[in-house]
Design brief:
Layout: H1 3-11, H2 17-47, H3 51-64, H4 67-88, E1 92-93, H5 127-132, E2 136-137, E3 152-158, H6 165-173, E4 182-188, H7 195-206, E5 212-217, H8 236-255, E6 260-264, E7 269-270, H9 275-284, E8 305-308, E9 321-322, E10 324-325, E11 331-332, H10 337-341, E12 348-351, E13 353-354, E14 357-361, H11 385-395, E15 400-403, E16 409-410, H12 427-449, H13 463-469, E17 482-485, H14 490-503, E18 508-511, H15 520-526, H16 545-559
Parallel strand pairs: 3-4, 3-6, 4-5, 8-15, 17-18
Antiparallel strand pairs: 1-2, 6-14, 7-16, 8-14, 9-13, 10-11, 12-15
InterPro entries: Collagen_mod_GT25, Glyco_trans_25, Nucleotide-diphossugar_trans
Pfam families: Glyco_transf_25
Protein name: Glycosyl transferase family 25 domain-containing protein
């Protein structure tokens, strides 16, 4: 025997006599018990043959409950759940650590709701948190070939919007949504400009593109308003007329069994082609749990009314939602209005009211209870279409929601009555002129505020009409107008030329003198010297070459040109 084997046996505990005796007695006792049990079972089986089957079943059940078998079952179940979880996470990414990813499509957004009446802590809404918990909805409605897209009815009221229609209609026709699932309804009301001509031109170009286009001129249903007195432009009769038209549009959408109804004003310029698809995705996938993020967000299972946040270029405070509303039905500024409007916090938030553009899910029974006319029972508020509608929504126990996760488009600020006197004593034209100026400001400011976005452009079939609406090119009674631009900045030159064209200013380009090309030798040749001891009063430094080049550019225009 080897040393290793010998040592092994040497170290092994030797059984004592007492242990062997105890083991033998135990074995003998067990044998006697088994013999007795076997004899007893035989007697029982003979006396009670019907209980034999029950005993067999009980024995099988006892074997199933074996610990090893249960452990195996639990292990298999755990592996199965892991496989299911891995497969499900292939279709959505929970985290997005890329803070600079600004090119996400509208389908990849964080759908969260927050009660604006509750306190919001800044640390919960810093940029890192928003980027970290972005949810990506990889399964888009349009990416599922087996899914029939919901039908949409788009209702539009038009009144003196000839200046916005070419651009508004471009935003509609560029929506990335199956056009055969869209019905368009246009109502023209008391129009004195060329809105009807423009709309007819567009319909002729797109009549075969959509499921249906309905166009009605409602002028014959109401006496022309008296524009000679400004106060009569929005009388109670006119408000009631607008209320009835909006109710008529909503009823049309219900009558054609549309799944969704998009109410949009003719001066809302949609710049994002995925606006409609995104809103529907949010409404259909609003039951997203965020408990794993440990955030105090409240998810509403049913979003019935949802509006995108629309930017206003000519106002720091105006937008298409109200953060709060008084008991009488008037506007109130909520505590977190600017946080939402400026997109300091991003998500889908319940708000007091939305207007100008919003989407209604008509598939919910609650949507049948909302409308413009008749007003809710015992309603004593102002005769105003958006306020009556908001009260109707409240009576139906429906919340308005606003989505500010993306950039969607623009809306001009409303005309202020005190500004009309600057245009004309004829209030008939003063209102239109002011609206046109505000819309020009919208188009120009858009390429400044949103440099990475496209310009506000008209529909392809209305380019000539939009071009004819621009002021004729002129020099504003000057001999010559110059605009100075560095040759290495062609992007800025394009913007400047676009703005001048929109304003009707005939200007000549002059290449600026680039400070990077200047040398001390060049200064000596021209005799350019800086004043001894001169320092910039703000930066406390001497002049830079770029500043000298800017001065020389202006100097040369006066001397050379």
């Amino acid at each position: 025997m080897s040393k290793k084997t010998h040592c092994h046996h040497q170290n092994k505990e030797r059984p004592t006599f007492q242990k062997l005796l105890t083991k033998r007695k135990s074995h003998k006792s067990n044998s006697n018990i088994n013999t007795v049990e076997h004899s007893n079972n035989s007697e029982v089986n003979q006396k009670y043959p019907d209980q034999k089957k029950f005993q067999i079943i009980f024995q099988k059940f006892h074997s199933i409950m074996n610990k090893r078998f249960l452990l195996s079952c639990l292990l298999i179940s755990f592996l199965y759940l892991c496989i299911v979880f891995i497969k499900s996470t292939k279709f959505e990414d929970i985290f997005n650590p890329n803070e600079n990813d600004n090119n996400e499509t509208l389908s990849n957004s964080l759908y969260v709701t927050l009660n604006v009446n509750k306190e919001i802590h800044n640390q919960d809404f810093n940029d890192e948190l928003i980027n970290e918990y972005h949810l990506h909805q990889k399964i888009s409605l349009l990416n599922n070939p087996n899914y029939l897209m919901p039908t949409i009815c788009i209702g539009v009221l038009i009144r003196n919007k000839a200046h916005t229609l070419p651009y508004f209609l471009n935003g509609i026709e560029n929506q990335h949504y199956p056009t055969k699932r869209i019905t368009l309804i246009f109502y023209i009301d008391n129009t004195i400009d060329s809105s009807e001509i423009i709309l007819n031109e567009w319909i002729q170009c797109n009549k075969d593109k959509y499921h249906n286009i309905i166009f009605e001129n409602t002028d014959q249903n109401i006496t022309k308003l008296n524009y000679n007195n400004l106060n009569k432009m929005w009388t109670q009769d006119h408000y009631l007329h607008v209320i009835n038209l909006r109710q008529k549009l909503l009823d049309k959408a219900r009558n054609i069994w549309a799944d969704f109804y998009l109410s949009i004003d003719a001066d809302v310029i949609l710049m994002n082609p995925l606006t409609i698809e995104h809103l529907i995705n949010v409404m259909l996938h609003s039951t997203i749990s965020t408990s794993k993020f440990n955030l105090n967000y409240k998810i509403n299972e049913n979003i019935i009314i949802l509006a995108p946040l629309i930017n206003c270029t000519s106002s720091e405070y105006y937008s298409n939602f109200w953060g709060a509303m008084s008991e009488e039905g008037y506007y109130l500024r909520s505590e977190h209005y600017f946080d939402i409007q400026k997109r300091r916090i991003q998500g889908v938030y319940p708000v007091a009211m939305v207007h100008s553009i919003f989407l209604i899910n008509l598939q919910f029974y609650q949507s049948e209870q909302i409308g413009y006319s008749p007003a809710p029972i015992n309603y004593t508020g102002p005769i105003d279409d958006i306020i009556i509608f908001s009260r109707s929504v409240q009576r139906a126990e429906i919340d308005f929601y606003l989505d500010n996760t993306q950039f969607y488009g623009y809306i001009p600020s409303p005309v202020e009555e005190q500004d009309l006197s600057l245009y004309s004593n004829d209030l008939n034209n003063a209102w239109l002129l002011r609206e046109q100026d505000l819309f020009v400001h919208l188009r120009l400011q858009a390429i400044i505020d949103q440099e990475d976005k496209q310009r506000v452009i008209p529909s392809k079939c209305l380019v000539n009409i939009a071009e004819n609406q621009l002021p004729k090119s002129n020099k504003l009674n000057f001999d010559e107008i110059y605009f100075i631009n560095l040759l290495r900045r062609p992007d800025r030159r394009q913007k400047m030329e676009y703005m001048l064209h929109q304003l009707g200013i005939n200007a000549k380009h002059y290449a600026a003198i680039d400070g990077k090309d200047l040398t001390m030798k060049y200064f000596d040749e021209l005799g350019i010297k800086q004043l001894p001891g001169y320092t910039d009063p703000y930066h406390n430094r001497s002049l830079k070459f770029g500043e000298i080049g800017c001065f020389l550019s202006h100097y040369n225009i006066w001397i050379v040109c």
